[in-house]
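To: structure subgroup
Subject: Chain for Friday's discussion

All,

I'm putting the inputs and outputs inline so they're searchable in the archive.
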Amino acid sequence: MKFLLDTVHKIKPTFSKGGKLSFLRSTFDAFEDFLFVPNKVTRRGTHIRDANDLKRMMTVVIVAALPALLFGMWNVGYQHFLATGVSTGIQSTGTSTVLQAFGISTGIFTSGPGFLTTFWYGFLKVIPLVLVSYIVGLGIEFISAQIRGHEVNEGYLVTGLLIPLIMPVDVPLWMLALSVAFAVIIGKEIFGGTGMNIWNPALLARAFLFFAYPSHISGSTVWIAGLTKGTDIVDGFSGATPLANAAAGLDIPSLQQLFLGTIPGSIGETSTLAILLGAALLLFTGVASWKIMISCIVGALSVGGLANGLAINPYMALPAYCHLLLGGFAFGAVFMATDPVTGAQTETGKWIYGFLIGAFTICLRLFNPGYPEGMMLAILLMNTFAPLIDHYVVQSSIRRRAKRAKQLTL
Protein backbone atom coordinates (compact mmCIF):
# COMPACT_ATOMS: atom_id res chain seq x y z
CA MET A 1 0.00 0.00 0.00
CA LYS A 2 2.92 2.36 0.76
CA PHE A 3 4.33 1.68 -2.70
CA LEU A 4 0.99 2.61 -4.27
CA LEU A 5 0.74 5.77 -2.17
CA ASP A 6 4.30 6.79 -3.10
CA THR A 7 3.55 6.20 -6.78
CA VAL A 8 0.42 8.36 -6.64
CA HIS A 9 2.31 11.17 -4.91
CA LYS A 10 5.10 10.92 -7.48
CA ILE A 11 2.82 11.40 -10.49
CA LYS A 12 0.50 13.89 -8.81
CA PRO A 13 2.41 17.01 -9.98
CA THR A 14 1.80 15.96 -13.59
CA PHE A 15 -1.95 16.31 -13.01
CA SER A 16 -1.77 19.37 -10.75
CA LYS A 17 -2.13 22.96 -11.92
CA GLY A 18 0.68 23.75 -14.35
CA GLY A 19 1.41 20.08 -15.10
CA LYS A 20 1.33 18.51 -18.53
CA LEU A 21 -1.91 16.69 -17.79
CA SER A 22 -3.53 19.32 -15.59
CA PHE A 23 -6.70 19.14 -17.69
CA LEU A 24 -7.22 15.66 -16.20
CA ARG A 25 -6.93 16.91 -12.64
CA SER A 26 -10.53 16.06 -11.75
CA THR A 27 -10.10 12.49 -13.00
CA PHE A 28 -6.84 12.03 -11.08
CA ASP A 29 -8.35 13.42 -7.87
CA ALA A 30 -11.27 11.02 -8.23
CA PHE A 31 -8.99 7.97 -8.45
CA GLU A 32 -6.85 9.26 -5.57
CA ASP A 33 -9.89 9.75 -3.34
CA PHE A 34 -11.19 6.31 -4.34
CA LEU A 35 -7.90 4.63 -3.34
CA PHE A 36 -7.15 6.60 -0.17
CA VAL A 37 -8.91 8.59 2.53
CA PRO A 38 -9.05 12.24 1.39
CA ASN A 39 -6.50 14.44 3.20
CA LYS A 40 -8.52 17.62 2.79
CA VAL A 41 -9.69 19.48 5.89
CA THR A 42 -11.85 22.53 6.48
CA ARG A 43 -9.98 25.83 6.62
CA ARG A 44 -12.56 28.41 7.64
CA GLY A 45 -16.13 28.86 8.75
CA THR A 46 -18.16 26.77 11.13
CA HIS A 47 -18.27 23.04 10.46
CA ILE A 48 -19.24 19.86 12.23
CA ARG A 49 -16.14 17.67 12.35
CA ASP A 50 -16.57 13.92 12.72
CA ALA A 51 -15.49 10.68 11.05
CA ASN A 52 -18.33 10.65 8.52
CA ASP A 53 -17.92 11.92 5.00
CA LEU A 54 -19.63 11.26 1.68
CA LYS A 55 -17.25 8.42 0.82
CA ARG A 56 -17.93 6.55 4.05
CA MET A 57 -21.69 7.02 3.76
CA MET A 58 -21.70 5.74 0.18
CA THR A 59 -19.62 2.73 1.21
CA VAL A 60 -22.11 1.83 3.95
CA VAL A 61 -25.04 1.98 1.51
CA ILE A 62 -23.19 -0.22 -0.99
CA VAL A 63 -22.43 -2.82 1.70
CA ALA A 64 -26.07 -2.67 2.84
CA ALA A 65 -27.25 -3.41 -0.71
CA LEU A 66 -24.97 -6.43 -1.12
CA PRO A 67 -27.35 -8.97 0.50
CA ALA A 68 -30.09 -7.98 -1.96
CA LEU A 69 -27.61 -8.13 -4.85
CA LEU A 70 -26.23 -11.54 -3.93
CA PHE A 71 -29.64 -13.06 -3.28
CA GLY A 72 -30.89 -11.50 -6.51
CA MET A 73 -28.13 -13.25 -8.43
CA TRP A 74 -29.11 -16.58 -6.96
CA ASN A 75 -32.83 -15.94 -7.54
CA VAL A 76 -32.21 -15.06 -11.20
CA GLY A 77 -30.71 -18.50 -11.69
CA TYR A 78 -33.37 -20.20 -9.64
CA GLN A 79 -36.26 -18.59 -11.54
CA HIS A 80 -34.64 -19.51 -14.87
CA PHE A 81 -34.20 -23.17 -13.93
CA LEU A 82 -37.69 -23.26 -12.41
CA ALA A 83 -39.23 -21.86 -15.60
CA THR A 84 -37.38 -24.30 -17.82
CA GLY A 85 -38.20 -27.28 -15.62
CA VAL A 86 -34.66 -27.93 -14.41
CA SER A 87 -35.14 -27.01 -10.76
CA THR A 88 -38.28 -27.98 -8.87
CA GLY A 89 -37.04 -29.11 -5.47
CA ILE A 90 -37.85 -25.88 -3.67
CA GLN A 91 -41.58 -26.31 -4.17
CA SER A 92 -41.82 -28.37 -0.98
CA THR A 93 -43.04 -26.69 2.19
CA GLY A 94 -41.82 -26.35 5.74
CA THR A 95 -38.31 -25.81 7.08
CA SER A 96 -36.79 -27.88 4.26
CA THR A 97 -37.91 -25.17 1.84
CA VAL A 98 -35.47 -22.70 3.34
CA LEU A 99 -32.67 -25.25 3.41
CA GLN A 100 -33.28 -26.42 -0.13
CA ALA A 101 -33.42 -22.81 -1.31
CA PHE A 102 -29.77 -22.45 -0.42
CA GLY A 103 -28.71 -26.01 -1.23
CA ILE A 104 -28.08 -26.76 2.46
CA SER A 105 -30.26 -29.83 2.85
CA THR A 106 -28.24 -32.20 0.65
CA GLY A 107 -25.79 -29.83 -1.02
CA ILE A 108 -27.98 -29.77 -4.14
CA PHE A 109 -31.65 -29.31 -4.98
CA THR A 110 -33.79 -32.42 -4.86
CA SER A 111 -33.83 -32.17 -8.63
CA GLY A 112 -31.78 -29.73 -10.58
CA PRO A 113 -28.56 -27.75 -10.22
CA GLY A 114 -26.91 -26.95 -6.91
CA PHE A 115 -26.46 -23.61 -5.23
CA LEU A 116 -23.24 -22.68 -6.98
CA THR A 117 -24.58 -23.52 -10.43
CA THR A 118 -27.74 -21.53 -9.78
CA PHE A 119 -25.80 -18.57 -8.40
CA TRP A 120 -23.26 -18.65 -11.22
CA TYR A 121 -26.00 -18.48 -13.85
CA GLY A 122 -27.50 -15.43 -12.14
CA PHE A 123 -24.08 -13.87 -11.63
CA LEU A 124 -23.34 -14.01 -15.36
CA LYS A 125 -26.71 -12.40 -16.09
CA VAL A 126 -26.49 -9.61 -13.51
CA ILE A 127 -22.84 -8.55 -13.74
CA PRO A 128 -23.18 -7.10 -17.28
CA LEU A 129 -25.99 -4.83 -16.01
CA VAL A 130 -23.80 -3.61 -13.13
CA LEU A 131 -20.85 -3.00 -15.45
CA VAL A 132 -22.92 -1.05 -17.98
CA SER A 133 -24.46 1.02 -15.21
CA TYR A 134 -21.08 1.99 -13.78
CA ILE A 135 -19.27 2.46 -17.09
CA VAL A 136 -21.94 4.72 -18.58
CA GLY A 137 -22.78 6.60 -15.38
CA LEU A 138 -19.22 7.17 -14.20
CA GLY A 139 -18.15 8.02 -17.74
CA ILE A 140 -20.69 10.85 -17.84
CA GLU A 141 -19.69 11.94 -14.32
CA PHE A 142 -16.01 12.13 -15.30
CA ILE A 143 -16.72 14.03 -18.52
CA SER A 144 -18.96 16.48 -16.69
CA ALA A 145 -16.34 17.04 -13.98
CA GLN A 146 -13.64 17.65 -16.59
CA ILE A 147 -15.78 20.16 -18.49
CA ARG A 148 -16.70 22.06 -15.34
CA GLY A 149 -13.33 21.69 -13.66
CA HIS A 150 -15.00 20.22 -10.59
CA GLU A 151 -14.19 17.23 -8.46
CA VAL A 152 -15.84 13.89 -9.26
CA ASN A 153 -18.31 13.13 -6.47
CA GLU A 154 -18.80 9.67 -4.98
CA GLY A 155 -22.58 9.80 -5.19
CA TYR A 156 -22.87 7.66 -8.31
CA LEU A 157 -21.10 4.74 -6.61
CA VAL A 158 -24.40 3.98 -4.89
CA THR A 159 -26.68 4.93 -7.78
CA GLY A 160 -24.68 2.74 -10.13
CA LEU A 161 -25.45 -0.30 -7.99
CA LEU A 162 -29.07 0.53 -7.20
CA ILE A 163 -30.07 0.96 -10.86
CA PRO A 164 -29.42 -2.71 -11.86
CA LEU A 165 -31.17 -3.91 -8.69
CA ILE A 166 -34.49 -2.31 -9.72
CA MET A 167 -34.34 -3.45 -13.34
CA PRO A 168 -35.64 -6.62 -15.04
CA VAL A 169 -32.78 -9.04 -15.51
CA ASP A 170 -33.21 -9.38 -19.28
CA VAL A 171 -33.38 -5.66 -20.10
CA PRO A 172 -31.25 -5.01 -23.23
CA LEU A 173 -27.95 -3.44 -22.26
CA TRP A 174 -28.36 -0.56 -24.70
CA MET A 175 -31.70 0.33 -23.10
CA LEU A 176 -30.07 0.24 -19.69
CA ALA A 177 -27.31 2.53 -20.99
CA LEU A 178 -29.88 5.03 -22.28
CA SER A 179 -31.74 4.92 -18.97
CA VAL A 180 -28.54 5.54 -17.02
CA ALA A 181 -27.54 8.41 -19.32
CA PHE A 182 -30.96 10.03 -18.89
CA ALA A 183 -30.83 9.66 -15.11
CA VAL A 184 -27.32 11.10 -14.77
CA ILE A 185 -27.59 13.94 -17.29
CA ILE A 186 -31.21 15.06 -16.87
CA GLY A 187 -31.78 13.95 -13.31
CA LYS A 188 -28.45 14.89 -11.77
CA GLU A 189 -25.82 16.82 -13.71
CA ILE A 190 -28.26 19.37 -15.08
CA PHE A 191 -29.02 20.39 -11.48
CA GLY A 192 -25.36 20.66 -10.47
CA GLY A 193 -24.33 17.11 -9.55
CA THR A 194 -24.38 15.14 -6.31
CA GLY A 195 -26.37 16.80 -3.55
CA MET A 196 -28.22 19.12 -5.93
CA ASN A 197 -30.60 16.73 -7.71
CA ILE A 198 -34.34 16.95 -7.08
CA TRP A 199 -35.30 13.35 -7.90
CA ASN A 200 -33.70 10.04 -7.05
CA PRO A 201 -31.47 9.22 -10.09
CA ALA A 202 -31.93 5.44 -9.80
CA LEU A 203 -35.71 5.78 -9.92
CA LEU A 204 -35.45 8.18 -12.85
CA ALA A 205 -33.59 5.48 -14.77
CA ARG A 206 -36.39 3.02 -14.09
CA ALA A 207 -39.04 5.61 -14.94
CA PHE A 208 -37.31 6.34 -18.26
CA LEU A 209 -37.31 2.64 -19.14
CA PHE A 210 -40.94 2.26 -18.06
CA PHE A 211 -42.25 5.10 -20.19
CA ALA A 212 -39.86 4.79 -23.14
CA TYR A 213 -39.85 0.99 -23.48
CA PRO A 214 -42.84 -0.31 -21.48
CA SER A 215 -42.79 -3.77 -23.09
CA HIS A 216 -39.36 -4.41 -21.54
CA ILE A 217 -40.44 -3.72 -17.97
CA SER A 218 -43.89 -5.31 -17.95
CA GLY A 219 -45.34 -8.67 -18.81
CA SER A 220 -44.63 -12.19 -17.59
CA THR A 221 -41.33 -12.96 -19.33
CA VAL A 222 -39.14 -9.91 -18.64
CA TRP A 223 -38.55 -11.00 -15.03
CA ILE A 224 -37.13 -14.41 -15.96
CA ALA A 225 -33.67 -14.65 -17.47
CA GLY A 226 -33.16 -16.45 -20.76
CA LEU A 227 -36.79 -16.79 -21.88
CA THR A 228 -36.21 -16.06 -25.55
CA LYS A 229 -38.43 -17.18 -28.39
CA GLY A 230 -38.48 -20.91 -28.68
CA THR A 231 -37.60 -21.54 -25.02
CA ASP A 232 -39.55 -24.45 -23.56
CA ILE A 233 -41.36 -23.30 -20.42
CA VAL A 234 -42.83 -25.66 -17.85
CA ASP A 235 -46.61 -26.02 -18.08
CA GLY A 236 -48.32 -23.86 -15.48
CA PHE A 237 -45.39 -21.48 -15.04
CA SER A 238 -46.40 -17.90 -15.88
CA GLY A 239 -43.41 -15.81 -14.79
CA ALA A 240 -45.69 -12.98 -13.68
CA THR A 241 -44.76 -11.20 -10.46
CA PRO A 242 -46.90 -11.83 -7.36
CA LEU A 243 -47.95 -8.18 -7.44
CA ALA A 244 -49.26 -8.55 -10.99
CA ASN A 245 -51.16 -11.69 -9.96
CA ALA A 246 -52.62 -9.90 -6.95
CA ALA A 247 -53.78 -7.01 -9.15
CA ALA A 248 -55.44 -9.52 -11.47
CA GLY A 249 -57.21 -11.24 -8.58
CA LEU A 250 -55.08 -14.39 -8.89
CA ASP A 251 -53.42 -16.39 -6.13
CA ILE A 252 -50.07 -15.18 -4.81
CA PRO A 253 -47.21 -17.20 -3.24
CA SER A 254 -47.10 -17.94 0.47
CA LEU A 255 -45.84 -15.34 2.95
CA GLN A 256 -42.74 -17.47 3.42
CA GLN A 257 -41.88 -17.28 -0.28
CA LEU A 258 -42.63 -13.56 -0.40
CA PHE A 259 -40.41 -12.92 2.62
CA LEU A 260 -37.51 -15.06 1.39
CA GLY A 261 -37.84 -13.72 -2.15
CA THR A 262 -38.05 -16.92 -4.21
CA ILE A 263 -40.41 -15.16 -6.64
CA PRO A 264 -40.11 -13.37 -10.00
CA GLY A 265 -39.32 -9.67 -9.90
CA SER A 266 -36.60 -7.07 -10.23
CA ILE A 267 -33.13 -8.32 -9.33
CA GLY A 268 -32.81 -6.78 -5.88
CA GLU A 269 -36.43 -6.25 -4.87
CA THR A 270 -37.73 -9.78 -4.27
CA SER A 271 -36.17 -10.74 -0.92
CA THR A 272 -37.56 -8.78 2.03
CA LEU A 273 -35.17 -10.71 4.29
CA ALA A 274 -32.09 -9.53 2.37
CA ILE A 275 -33.42 -5.97 2.28
CA LEU A 276 -34.01 -6.01 6.05
CA LEU A 277 -30.39 -7.04 6.58
CA GLY A 278 -29.35 -3.97 4.64
CA ALA A 279 -31.83 -1.84 6.58
CA ALA A 280 -30.33 -3.02 9.87
CA LEU A 281 -26.88 -1.82 8.77
CA LEU A 282 -28.20 1.53 7.54
CA LEU A 283 -30.03 2.14 10.81
CA PHE A 284 -27.14 0.95 12.99
CA THR A 285 -24.74 3.34 11.28
CA GLY A 286 -27.26 6.18 11.23
CA VAL A 287 -26.97 6.58 7.46
CA ALA A 288 -30.71 6.18 6.79
CA SER A 289 -33.67 7.64 8.65
CA TRP A 290 -35.76 5.20 10.64
CA LYS A 291 -38.54 7.78 10.72
CA ILE A 292 -38.99 7.55 6.95
CA MET A 293 -38.90 3.75 6.95
CA ILE A 294 -41.45 3.42 9.75
CA SER A 295 -43.76 6.11 8.37
CA CYS A 296 -43.72 4.43 4.94
CA ILE A 297 -44.96 1.24 6.56
CA VAL A 298 -47.58 3.10 8.62
CA GLY A 299 -48.84 4.93 5.53
CA ALA A 300 -49.14 1.72 3.54
CA LEU A 301 -50.88 -0.16 6.34
CA SER A 302 -53.30 2.74 6.93
CA VAL A 303 -54.52 2.90 3.33
CA GLY A 304 -54.32 -0.88 2.94
CA GLY A 305 -56.41 -1.36 6.09
CA LEU A 306 -58.98 1.14 4.83
CA ALA A 307 -59.14 -0.77 1.53
CA ASN A 308 -59.67 -4.01 3.44
CA GLY A 309 -62.65 -2.42 5.15
CA LEU A 310 -64.21 -1.54 1.79
CA ALA A 311 -63.01 -4.60 -0.17
CA ILE A 312 -65.08 -4.04 -3.30
CA ASN A 313 -62.72 -6.27 -5.30
CA PRO A 314 -60.24 -9.09 -4.57
CA TYR A 315 -57.22 -6.76 -4.78
CA MET A 316 -58.62 -4.46 -2.10
CA ALA A 317 -59.36 -7.51 0.05
CA LEU A 318 -55.68 -8.48 -0.01
CA PRO A 319 -54.35 -8.15 3.59
CA ALA A 320 -52.62 -4.81 4.01
CA TYR A 321 -49.43 -6.38 5.35
CA CYS A 322 -48.99 -8.32 2.11
CA HIS A 323 -48.30 -5.05 0.30
CA LEU A 324 -45.17 -4.67 2.39
CA LEU A 325 -43.78 -7.87 0.86
CA LEU A 326 -44.97 -7.32 -2.70
CA GLY A 327 -43.17 -5.51 -5.50
CA GLY A 328 -40.54 -2.93 -4.67
CA PHE A 329 -42.10 -1.60 -1.47
CA ALA A 330 -39.45 -2.87 0.95
CA PHE A 331 -36.53 -1.94 -1.32
CA GLY A 332 -38.00 1.50 -1.99
CA ALA A 333 -38.68 2.23 1.67
CA VAL A 334 -35.14 1.24 2.70
CA PHE A 335 -32.90 2.44 -0.13
CA MET A 336 -34.89 4.98 -2.18
CA ALA A 337 -37.18 6.91 0.14
CA THR A 338 -34.34 7.43 2.64
CA ASP A 339 -32.09 9.17 0.10
CA PRO A 340 -30.87 12.19 2.13
CA VAL A 341 -30.63 14.42 -0.95
CA THR A 342 -34.12 13.98 -2.39
CA GLY A 343 -36.05 13.31 0.82
CA ALA A 344 -37.36 15.61 3.53
CA GLN A 345 -34.74 17.17 5.79
CA THR A 346 -36.74 18.23 8.87
CA GLU A 347 -37.55 15.61 11.49
CA THR A 348 -41.30 16.24 11.37
CA GLY A 349 -41.13 16.43 7.60
CA LYS A 350 -39.63 12.94 7.46
CA TRP A 351 -42.72 11.52 9.16
CA ILE A 352 -45.03 13.29 6.71
CA TYR A 353 -42.85 12.45 3.70
CA GLY A 354 -42.62 8.74 4.51
CA PHE A 355 -46.30 8.41 5.39
CA LEU A 356 -47.38 9.95 2.10
CA ILE A 357 -45.04 7.66 0.13
CA GLY A 358 -46.57 4.58 1.73
CA ALA A 359 -50.12 5.89 1.33
CA PHE A 360 -49.68 6.95 -2.30
CA THR A 361 -48.06 3.62 -3.15
CA ILE A 362 -51.11 1.65 -2.07
CA CYS A 363 -53.45 4.16 -3.74
CA LEU A 364 -51.60 3.76 -7.03
CA ARG A 365 -51.66 -0.01 -6.72
CA LEU A 366 -55.35 -0.24 -5.96
CA PHE A 367 -56.73 2.38 -8.33
CA ASN A 368 -54.39 2.16 -11.32
CA PRO A 369 -54.85 -1.28 -12.92
CA GLY A 370 -52.33 -0.46 -15.64
CA TYR A 371 -49.53 0.04 -13.15
CA PRO A 372 -49.77 -2.28 -10.13
CA GLU A 373 -46.38 -1.35 -8.60
CA GLY A 374 -46.77 2.25 -7.38
CA MET A 375 -43.63 2.64 -5.24
CA MET A 376 -41.50 4.26 -7.94
CA LEU A 377 -44.04 6.93 -8.85
CA ALA A 378 -44.92 7.59 -5.20
CA ILE A 379 -41.29 8.28 -4.27
CA LEU A 380 -40.67 10.48 -7.33
CA LEU A 381 -43.85 12.41 -6.55
CA MET A 382 -42.83 13.00 -2.95
CA ASN A 383 -39.27 13.91 -4.05
CA THR A 384 -40.95 16.80 -5.85
CA PHE A 385 -42.88 17.92 -2.79
CA ALA A 386 -40.21 17.25 -0.13
CA PRO A 387 -38.93 20.88 -0.16
CA LEU A 388 -42.52 22.11 0.20
CA ILE A 389 -43.10 19.80 3.16
CA ASP A 390 -39.94 21.11 4.85
CA HIS A 391 -40.96 24.70 4.10
CA TYR A 392 -44.30 24.35 5.87
CA VAL A 393 -42.76 22.44 8.77
CA VAL A 394 -40.21 25.23 9.29
CA GLN A 395 -42.84 27.97 8.92
CA SER A 396 -45.09 26.20 11.39
CA SER A 397 -42.22 26.03 13.89
CA ILE A 398 -41.48 29.74 13.39
CA ARG A 399 -45.12 30.66 14.00
CA ARG A 400 -45.25 28.56 17.17
CA ARG A 401 -42.08 30.14 18.51
CA ALA A 402 -43.27 33.63 17.64
CA LYS A 403 -46.61 32.98 19.35
CA ARG A 404 -44.88 31.61 22.45
CA ALA A 405 -42.49 34.56 22.58
CA LYS A 406 -45.42 37.00 22.27
CA GLN A 407 -47.24 35.32 25.15
CA LEU A 408 -44.13 35.53 27.35
CA THR A 409 -43.83 39.27 26.75
CA LEU A 410 -47.44 39.96 27.76
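Points worth raising on Friday:
Residues 289-410 form one domain.
The radius of gyration is 23 Å.

D.
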